[in-house]
Write a structure and sequence with these properties.
heterotrimer, A alpha/beta (342), B alpha/beta (508), C mainly alpha (327), B: alpha/beta, six-stranded mixed beta sheet, 18 helices, disordered N terminus, C: 327 residues, mainly alpha, two-stranded antiparallel ribbon
Chain lengths: 342, 508, 327
């Protein structure tokens, strides 16, 4: 709480100096956010970003958790609407379940921003581009392989075929990699379930079968960690290995980048920035400004050992985003590929 | 052929063709003949008893009549017409109702709902006419003199009333034949009398009744004709008036038993081994008695008098509210079975299946359960010494088993009982409490169990016998105690005891 | 039922063979699986792969030793998955804070034991059905692990000993495999040759009969719950070492894998029946299937489908065997 108060104070100070541009807009009084799964690290950080931005702009901000339950999500959103929030932000638990909600918000004239996934009939959505994230990490990995791995690229993909987002990441990674190393191959395409113990288990089998793997790509940090740990458990040296993680939502990747020589690239998605962008989009909607249907929140590969320090501070086992650095990233106007292209 | 004989034995005043004729029925189970060319003729208005030891084929024959099994050979005709009974429902439709030992009612439904389970009357809109069901059930009960409320939930009724409901179901379906499988096994004498009354009303209505039972006294009281089966074969069909207890037993087991209650032991000793003082539990009130080494102390009581409760309380299984139990001079404290065992008291339960046997485990493991410590050193079981001890008891008790590793569920009731008795004797006890030791056991095996109990007493144990069987009580006991509603109402020497005195005390 | 007793003697000479038939079928299945997989993918027999299979099997088998005893005692523990995740989080956190691997490992194991103790108390004292009690425990653990730590606890202590727990070798064998072998052997001896083992069977086969025979079923059950808990804690520590992080999300579905393996091994859910040898084979079969599907590059969704199918078949065969045994 104390920390929050301090943030609030600084935010107000910053606001006085820098927010003259935003002052030109009308500010919504209150924004309500219904998240789908607040316990997850990713959403924790999204919420953190929203809180930061809302405080900067002097907007009252409240979060409810649907805990993966559509009924709960709809109830929470309706509650917000009847309370009279000015803008609603929703991370849909599932796309179909939220359609009536979008319709109702429209009827009631309450602007609504979707986070993460599109819903039929929505005005706008704030999300990262999964394919692009993978793609740029792939390009970086290609460079690294060229420089350090003798130009060979045999990839074990610790994936999650269940979700289109994670499939896009893997596809993007391979496509990006091939721009540098055209004969790169995906030796194993695994379903690691997105969780570390499963990822570890399936990776062990795959590594045993294919000794020539030299790049491990994980669709999230748990997956890359599972893959790397399977590698270590098999007693292999990390000398000719590159591990690429995706997400950067917690402390795991920082720890790995610090301690594991092979963990050189993280395709960071900056969840805080997603939250930040969502609040900005909410303000724009409130002012009836024109917005694209997909507002892209920027991502960027971090390459090399200390690269994370460019974007994050770490103290007391807590990380804080460096807004200047992240806000300096230029987002794409639109994604190179989306789920529609699969 | 048997059909003729049975007809010949039928009194002439009964007119009309047989209700059901079964001829040459044969049934195989994986190659073993459970029934071999058995015939049976049931006459309207008559009670036909079906007798035989366990495994004689009674159940198979009944199940064929009920439509549960289909015979491999033979014919069934109902009122002269050849019939094919495909299922219990089919049999019921053709007028045959079997009341099995395990009651087949839906406990959550009311009495009336259960009676008309096979088809509820509906109105034109298809909704069930509950009012008619209730009225019909009440009328039915009035006709046969049942004292049951049609609106009661079946699950809340005692077994005896549930049985009545089953019988009423037969009437509701205008059955011609009612088969009763061991109907008195869980009834009190008063309830048995009521049941017999109902059976007489059924026969007066022209129904044929098949009565399956082990209990000789009941057969002589209620049956007109007796058919005995043994090893799946038909042995005899005679009017009951041509039988004596002895001839019936001889037919059933194929040999004569001269003395059902052999007595080899001498007089009881003087040393008090079990001393129960002012014992009370939720059910029992202030019970005191002493038992001496070498005596059999029989406890009699009607259903619900508290026999089983007393048995479980004195071995430490059930908690007590007040009182002291002393075994061999030492107080049973704390009040649990572990202490009880250590002091030398054990219970042979009345409910073998749910409290005695470990069905999936071997004869050895079942027998050695209470005395494993004796075969163990620092927690490890010495299997050779365990095995030889078990073998010794199998030999001594003449337990019929193909091997010591045989799962106990494949043994007959009598042999299972011997194993359970051995469980305690192997441990070495001062007092053994035996609760209904011959329940569900063949006549032949019964006398062996009685002999074993006698042997135990002569070895110096105090035997506490809980029984609802008067012959067993009188045949085995040195002294007789009587329980009524949780109180000890009388305690007497065998020499002074008469059936009347005992019943008197039991009803008090 | 009455007919059984008469025909029983005819079956008896084959008895020894019949009782071990479940295991024989499992053994043949295991060999057939290995053979088929290796024909299609020779790498199956590579040292790396065999070690990978053994290491994965050992994690399941350690808990399955306890679970087999629980099922024989007619109880079950479905909180093992959640408990092992929490135990791993605790182990890593304590090691981070104290820089002592010993303390961390102890904390993890004792945490699991504590969960087992509470499960045992709930089941024996409050007399709540263990299925319900341990599902409730699973929910409580899955929720409270987030109260303890919002995210995965990373390895800050960098103690090589901690990593050695999962990746170390004793001679040619990975340490977890050696630990498993020792625990399995102890469990086997206890169940087969000690009074305690006999009592576990007795309590599961007929609790009242056991109590009438002077055994205290509550104590036996309590003990088996605690043993299962301790073993779960140990696996939590090993998995944490293997992942190099205490992951709150670890162990999802682990309880089902364990129970499935135990049931596949011929242990009855109703208690009183089962062997550790069967469990060992059950675990190996499930893990070989898991591994084979990846090696063969089949669709990984089959990793759920095939074991489910095999459990149905195995249970049905067991039923057939019991029927033929009975008639």
């Amino acid at each position: 709480m104390k920390k929050f108060a301090i943030t609030l104070l600084t935010a107000t100070a910053i606001m006085a100096i820098t927010a003259s541009a935003t002052w030109a807009q009308n500010m919504p009084k209150k924004i309500g956010y219904v998240t789908n799964y607040a316990t997850h690290e990713w959403y924790q950080n999204v919420i953190k970003g929203m809180q930061d931005r809302a405080a900067q702009l002097g907007i009252e901000f409240e979060v409810r958790d649907a805990n993966l339950d559509v009924a709960k999500e709809v109830a929470a959103a309706e509650d917000f609407m009847s309370q009279g929030v000015d803008v609603l932000i929703v991370t849909p638990v599932n796309e179909e379940g939220v359609v009536p909600l979008v319709r109702r918000a429209k009827e009631d004239g309450i602007p609504m921003v979707l986070e993460g996934n599109p819903v039929k009939g929505m005005t706008t959505m704030v999300a990262i581009c999964d394919y692009d994230t993978g793609y740029h990490a792939g390009v970086a990995a290609g460079q690294y392989a060229k420089d350090h791995l003798g130009g060979a690229a045999k990839v074990m993909n610790v994936g999650l075929p269940l979700l289109s987002a994670t499939v896009l990441r893997s596809n993007g990674f391979m496509d990006g990699l091939k721009t540098i190393i055209p004969d790169a191959t995906m030796v194993h395409d695994l379903d690691g379930g997105g969780n570390p113990d499963r990822a570890l288990e399936v990776s062990s089998a795959a590594l045993a079968q294919n000794a020539d793997i030299n790049i491990i790509y994980g669709i999230n940090d748990s997956s890359s960690q599972g893959g790397l740990q399977a590698w270590k458990a098999a007693g292999k040296s990390q000398d000719n290995l590159l591990v690429v993680g995706t997400g950067g939502e917690g402390l795991g990747f920082i720890n790995m980048m610090d301690n594991e020589p092979s963990y050189q690239i993280e395709a960071a998605m900056f969840p805080e920035k997603v939250g930040f962008t969502a609040i900005d989009a909410a303000v724009k909607l409130f002012n009836k400004e024109e917005v694209p249907p997909h507002i892209v929140s920027p991502t960027s590969p971090m390459v090399g050992k200390d690269s994370w320090k460019q974007f994050y501070d770490l103290a007391d086992n807590k990380r804080t985003i460096k807004w200047d650095a992240v806000n300096a990233l230029v987002p794409a106007d639109k994604c190179m590929k989306t789920a529609a292209d699969l | 052929m048997q059909a003729d004989r049975s007809l010949a034995g039928t009194p002439t005043e009964v007119s009309g063709a047989p209700a059901v004729t079964m001829t040459g029925i044969t049934k195989l189970f994986t190659g073993v003949k459970a029934l071999d060319d058995v015939s049976l003729t049931l006459l309207p208005g008559r009670v036909h008893a079906l007798m035989g030891e366990n495994g004689a084929g009674k159940s198979t024959l009944i199940k064929i009549l009920a439509g549960v099994y289909r015979p491999d050979a033979g014919q069934i005709s109902i009122t002269g017409k050849l019939a094919d009974l495909r299922s219990p429902r089919d049999a019921l439709r053709q007028g045959i109702k079997v009341v099995f030992q395990e009651i087949a009612l839906i406990p959550e439904f009311t009495v009336a709902e259960n009676i008309f389970l096979e088809g509820y009357p509906t109105d034109r809109l298809g909704s069930i006419r509950w009012d008619r069901i209730r009225a019909d059930a009440a009328a039915l009960f009035a006709r046969i003199g049942f004292d049951v409320n049609p609106d009661d939930k079946v699950g809340n009724l005692p077994v005896s009333k549930q049985q009545m409901v089953e019988i009423a179901r037969a009437l509701a379906h205008e059955a011609r034949v009612v088969v009763m499988d061991e109907p008195t096994s869980s009834l009190t004498p008063a309830e048995v009398a009521k049941l017999f009354d109902v059976i007489r009303r059924l026969t007066a209505l022209g129904m044929a009744v098949v009565y399956v039972s082990h209990k000789l006294d009941e057969i002589f009281e209620i049956a007109d004709t007796v058919t005995v089966l043994r090893d799946g074969r038909h042995i005899s069909t005679k009017p009951v008036s041509e039988h004596t207890h002895e001839t019936l037993i001889t037919d059933m087991i194929g040999r004569r038993i001269d003395n059902l209650f052999p007595r080899a032991r001498g007089a009881a000793g003087e040393q008090v081994i079990l001393d129960v003082e002012e014992l009370s539990t939720e059910k029992l009130k202030g019970i005191s008695f002493k038992a001496r080494a070498g005596e059999v102390l029989g406890f009699f009581g009607l259903m619900g008098a508290g026999r089983t409760e007393l048995a479980k309380a004195i071995v430490g299984f059930d908690p007590i509210t007040t009182g002291r139990i002393t075994i061999g001079g030492q107080l049973l404290q704390p009040h649990d079975t572990r202490t009880g065992k250590a002091l030398g008291i054990g219970l042979l339960t009345e409910d073998r299946k749910s409290e005695g046997l470990m069905l999936d485990l071997s004869v050895t493991h079942n027998m050695s359960l209470a005395s494993l410590e004796r075969f163990s050193k620092s927690g490890f079981v010495s299997e050779p010494s365990e095995k030889s001890a078990v073998q010794a008891f199998v030999d001594r008790f003449r337990v019929k088993t193909p091997g010591l590793t045989r799962q106990i569920k494949f043994l007959s009731g009598g042999n299972q009982q011997k194993v359970l008795l051995a469980r305690w004797l192997m441990r070495g006890l001062k007092v053994i409490v035996v609760d209904e030791p011959t329940r569900g056991i063949d006549v032949g095996a019964k006398s062996e169990i009685f002999a074993l109990i006698d042997e135990l007493a002569s070895d110096g144990l105090a035997v506490i016998l809980m029984t609802s069987e008067m012959p067993e009580l009188l045949g085995l006991s040195d002294r007789i105690a009587v329980l009524a509603e949780g109180r000890l109402t009388a305690i007497m020497d065998r020499a002074d005891a008469t059936q009347e005195k005992i019943l008197d005390a039991a009803i008090a | 039922m009455t007919e059984l007793s008469r025909s029983a003697p005819q079956v008896s000479p084959k008895l020894g063979w019949l009782t071990s038939q479940t295991q024989l079928v499992l053994l043949v299945t295991l060999f057939a699986l290995c053979l088929l997989i290796s024909l299609a993918a020779p790498q199956f027999y590579s040292v790396d792969n065999i070690i990978a299979i053994l290491r994965q099997s050992s994690l399941v088998l350690i808990v399955a030793v306890g679970m087999t005893m629980l099922l024989i005692a007619a109880e079950v523990d479905l909180s093992v998955g959640a408990s092992l995740a929490f135990a791993g989080v605790v182990a890593m956190d304590v090691t981070n804070k104290t820089s002592s691997v010993t303390l961390g490992v102890m904390a993890g194991i004792l945490f699991g034991g504590g969960v087992g103790l509470i499960n045992g108390l709930i089941v024996t004292k409050l007399r709540i059905n263990s299925l319900i009690a341990t599902i409730a425990m699973m929910m409580m653990l899955q929720g409270s692990v987030y109260l303890y730590s919002r995210e995965a606890v990373q390895n800050k202590h960098l103690q090589p000993l901690f990593t050695w727990l999962s990746t170390g070798y004793v001679g040619p064998l990975p340490l977890p495999v050696v630990v498993t072998a020792v625990l399995f052997a102890i469990g086997y001896v206890v169940l087969r040759h000690t009074t305690l083992g006999r009592y576990v069977y007795a309590v599961g086969a007929n609790e009242k009969a056991a109590r009438l025979s002077g055994i205290r079923p509550a104590r036996i059950k309590m003990l088996v719950f605690i043993v299962t808990g301790l073993l779960t804690g140990l696996v939590g520590v090993i998995l944490c070492s293997l992942m190099n992080a205490g992951q709150p999300t670890a162990g999802r579905g682990f309880e089902l894998t364990v129970v499935a393996a135990v049931i596949l091994g011929g242990t009855s859910l109703t208690g009183g029946r089962g062997t550790l040898l069967g469990t060992l084979l059950g675990v190996l079969i499930l893990k070989v299937i898991d591994n084979g599907i990846i090696i063969l590059r089949w669709d990984q969704d089959l990793q759920m489908v095939i074991p489910g199918f095999i459990i149905v078949i195995a249970s049905y065969l067991d039923l057939l065997r019991k029927k033929s045994n009975a008639s």
